[in-house]
Write a structure and sequence with these properties.
single chain, 182 residues, three-stranded antiparallel beta sheet, elongated
Length: 182
């Protein structure tokens, strides 16, 4: 689930050669997993199955996104058709699953929605990729100063950032963070 490439990180850091490729690949995997966990969402496109309790309302909020397709909707063990003519059935609208001209039947975990969500290969937003590059770069540079908060040399003191993410990465990722309760 690498959200960037060693080549992109090397370009950002100004590194040439292949001596650190294995290290960078490992840091990319780790940073990509960290970002996925931080965002609390599926980043790469894949199938999702969600169970909902019907409450007699006309809308459900799907927890993953972006939505590529709705594969199946089942309520009370009965498949529901997509609404093609706006008379009945369901339709997806911006992460919402709407019941057209009706309400979702009441019940506990009685609605099952299977859908494909996430970003297709090659379409991961640039902000997410740059946040991963930023995090990899930070960890790459930090390896020479593990455990140091500051260092004094010849009367000068250098203070190092001690954070899990840079302010840029945190701000960029917060735009994609899932905030819908599970």
């Amino acid at each position: 689930m690498a959200l960037t490439t060693p080549e992109n990180v090397k370009q950002y850091l100004g590194i040439t050669g292949t001596a650190d490729d294995a290290l960078l690949a490992s840091l990319i995997e780790s940073a990509s997993a960290f970002v996925a966990q931080y965002l609390s969402r599926q980043i790469e496109q894949g199938q999702v199955t969600e169970y909902f309790s019907g409450r007699g309302r006309d809308a459900l909020i799907l927890s993953e996104g972006p939505i590529a397709s709705i594969d199946a909707v089942v309520a009370d063990d009965q498949p529901l058709p997509a609404s093609l003519d706006k008379s009945t059935g369901w339709k997806e609208a911006g992460g919402w699953l709407l019941y057209v001209n009706g309400r979702w039947p009441e019940g506990r975990q009685n609605i099952v929605v299977t859908y494909t969500a996430g970003y297709a290969p090659g379409s991961i937003p640039a902000d997410i990729e740059q946040a991963v590059i930023d995090l990899v770069s930070l960890r790459y540079k930090e390896r020479d100063r593990i455990g140091f908060q500051s260092k004094s040399l010849a009367g000068e003191t250098v203070t190092f950032m001690i954070r899990d993410l840079s302010q840029f990465a945190r701000t960029a990722l917060n735009n994609f963070r899932k905030v819908i309760p599970q």
